[in-house]
Amino acid sequence: MTRERFFRPDDRGSSAVEFALTAPAFLALLFGALQGGLMLWTQLGLQQAVERAARCAAVNAALCGTSDLVKAYAVTQGLASGVTTGSFTLTTETCGKAVTATQSVRFVTATVSLSARSCFPK
Q: pLDDT tens-digit profile of 107-121?
């Protein structure tokens, strides 16, 4: 091997090293953003479900006359997946019929509890 070739700069593989250094941070941001979006989608779905269920409980006694019917109706109206009737509660308060929902969602490495509440007057 000649001396000039030994001391000449060699940049082969530098792109692979740069990628290896930046890829974990980029992928963590990407998957964190996706998980955050899914969590916000679930929150929106819960809020929509409780609003519609509270209105149904206050206005439509034929469709939502009992607590179990209101819970079943809320599950069908929500956009969130994985929500069951056990997530919803119906109460009668001074504001009218109130529906509350709580749902646990796994966010990256922690479990986050989402909640939504709506009250519709009679």
A: 778 899 999 999 999
